[in-house]
Design brief:
The chain has helices at 10-22, 45-49, and strands spanning 25-31, 38-43. It is of the alpha+beta class and 77 residues long. Strand 1 and strand 2 (38-43) form a beta hairpin.
Length: 77
């Protein structure tokens, strides 16, 4: 955000602040580019479950760093 005022907007910032202060979310980050994207939220599973209006995906952090999990000799995933 210090680099440009186009990184986020007031509505997104207010929504993330509300989720942190009222819904038990630890933090949030805006991801994506252009006119669409996602808000990555981190919180306890019960806090995330209570956000019914949002689509959620479970994920875990990987301590081992980046690694190739599939290689078809043309694309890396």
């Amino acid at each position: 955000k210090p680099l440009s005022n186009k990184i986020s907007n007031i509505e997104v910032d207010k929504e993330i602040s509300y989720l942190i202060s009222q819904k038990g979310i630890f933090g949030g980050k805006l991801l994506g580019a252009g006119q669409s994207g996602y808000i990555l939220l981190v919180g306890e599973p019960d806090s995330i479950k209570n956000l019914n209006k949002l689509n959620t995906t479970k994920f875990n952090f990987e301590n081992g760093g980046s690694k190739i999990i599939f290689n078809d000799e043309r694309n890396y995933y």
